[in-house]
Amino acid sequence: MYSYTEGLSVAWDDIPDWSLGVAQQLLQAVHDKDPFTYHHCCRVGRVSRQLAAAIGLNEFEQAVSEYAGLFHDIGKVKIPLEILIKPGRLTPAEIEVIKSHATLSAEMIQHLDHIPFFRFMLPGIKYHHERIDGEGYPNCISAQNIPLFARMIAIVDAFDAMTNSRPYRNPLPEEKAIAEIHAFAGTQFDPQLVKPFLEIVPKIKVYSHEVVRKEVVVARLAKVA
Predict the structure, then answer these.
(1) What CATH number is attached to the domain comprising 147?
(2) Which residues have C-beta within 8 Å of that of residue 188, sequence separation ≥ 6?
(3) Residue 185 forms beta bridges with which residues?
(4) Nearest partner of 201 among 183, 217, 223, 182, judged by Cα
(5) I need a surface site. Which of 78, 133, 149, 214 has the fewest CB within 10 A?
(6) Residue 93 pLDDT more than 80?
């Protein structure tokens, strides 16, 4: 259905052996500051990989998708905790601070962009809050100009945020979250990705050992969390 790296000489062997160590180091810092964000990143990484497989991306691209999902919110370690977990409504200035996390997340692995594996995941991290209608951030890009991995993570991220609790709100029922994804297809979300995403929703909360064993990163991170 999709191919992000078609024609490029990349393969499973092009994932550096030390990538897991990078993920562990960065996500440990997230865990130390805000355990919710850590677990959110792990879930988004897991489901982003599932979505990549569902739309026919190859093994390398599935791994890129998983890592991009894992790293999409790591920039929140640089957001003041009083803003990050504030129980009340954010001020306009605080909203702008929160919105900086996507760029901050990308900047935290920018120094690795000479390595194809990390270079491919950077757009997914930086642009996961862009919207199909061009009303997102940080660059207000729209439609197919938004990189594929970013369009994928946008859906996974929103669904996970809606269906999990935070100090300032309760989770939505799964049916309501699905309805929201449907409602914003074509404005916030890529409608071509909404259908395959909703098809994998029943699998999202299946955390059997067999499912986890097949994952690239999340299973091993869970052992040290």
Answers:
(1) 1.10.3210.10
(2) 131, 132, 133, 136, 154, 158
(3) 189
(4) 182
(5) 214
(6) yes
| Cβ contact 124:134 at 8 Å | no
169 three-class SS: strand
What is the domain extent for residue 46? 17-224
pLDDT score of 193 more than 60: yes
**Total structural domains in the chain?**
1
Rounded Cα–Cα distance for residues 165 and 36 (Å): 9
| In a domain? residue 11 | no
Tokens of 222: 């869970």
Residue 161 lies in a domain: yes
Mean pLDDT of 108-112: 97
Nearest to 12 by CA among 65, 61, 55: 61
Q: Which helix (H) or strand (E) holds 155?
A: helix 148-163
Where does the pLDDT of residue 211 fall: very low under 50, low under 70, confident under 90, or very high at 90 and above? Answer: very low
User: pTM to 2 decimals?
Assistant: 0.88
Domain-located, residue 151: yes
* Amino acid residing at 23: A
